[in-house]
Amino acid sequence: MTYTIEVNSPEETEAFAIKLAEKLEPGDILTLEGGLGAGKTTFTKGLAKGLGIKKMVNSPTFTILKQYSGNLELNHFDVYRLEHSDEDIGFDELFASEAVSVVEWAQFIEEYLPSERLEITIERLSEESRSIRLQAVGHRYETLCKELMP
Length: 150
Ligand SMILES: Nc1ncnc2c1ncn2[C@@H]1O[C@H](COP(=O)(O)OP(=O)(O)OP(=O)(O)O)[C@@H](O)[C@H]1O
Ligand SMILES: [Mg+2]
Fold this sequence. Notes:
- Keywords: ATP-binding, Cytoplasm, Magnesium, Metal-binding, Nucleotide-binding, tRNA processing.
- By secondary structure, the chain is an alpha/beta fold.
- The chain has helices spanning 10-21, 40-50, 91-96, 139-148, and strands at 2-7, 29-33, 65-69, 73-78, 100-104, 117-124, 130-137.
- Bound molecules: adenosine-5'-triphosphate (ATP) and magnesium ion.
C-alpha cells in the first residue's frame, strides 16, 4: 500500500508527522529517504512533537543516534555517515526495543533494517513544496496507513 501527500511548507510537513505520531505504537520502525535538505529532520521534529517530546530535535553531524523520551521513547538515527561503512552500532537490539525508531538515510543501512517498516520518501518539488510518500511493508504498517487515511 502506498500513500502520497503533497505539503507546501515546513509547518505542513511537521503537522503531517504529528498526525502520524499519534498513531504510533512501541517498536514501530519508520525509514526516511530523500536527498539533502528534503525535510527528513523537519519530519522527525514533527514526530517528536507528536510523541510529546519537549526537547529540541536536530541532527548533529557526528551523532548517529539520539534517544528521546515522551509518551513513547524515540530513537532518532541519522546514518548519513555510514554510507561507505558497514559499522553495526547494535541495530538489531535498538530496532527490537520498545522505542519508536526513525532512520534518516535508511538506504545506507539497508542490511540492518527490519524487513517490516513504514518507508517514508520525501521529495523536493520546489522551495517549500514536498511530496511525502508512505509505503507500508508488513501488516502492522498497512494497518497504520489505514488508520492515518481512513
Ligand atoms: N515543505 C517542507 N518540508 C520540510 N522542509 C522544508 C519544506 N519547505 C522548506 N523546507 C526547508 O527545507 C529544509 C529541510 O531541512 P531538513 O534538515 O529537514 O532536511 P533533511 O532531509 O533532514 O536534510 P539532511 O539531508 O541534511 O539530513 C529546512 O531548511 C526547511 O525549512
Ligand atoms: Mg537531516
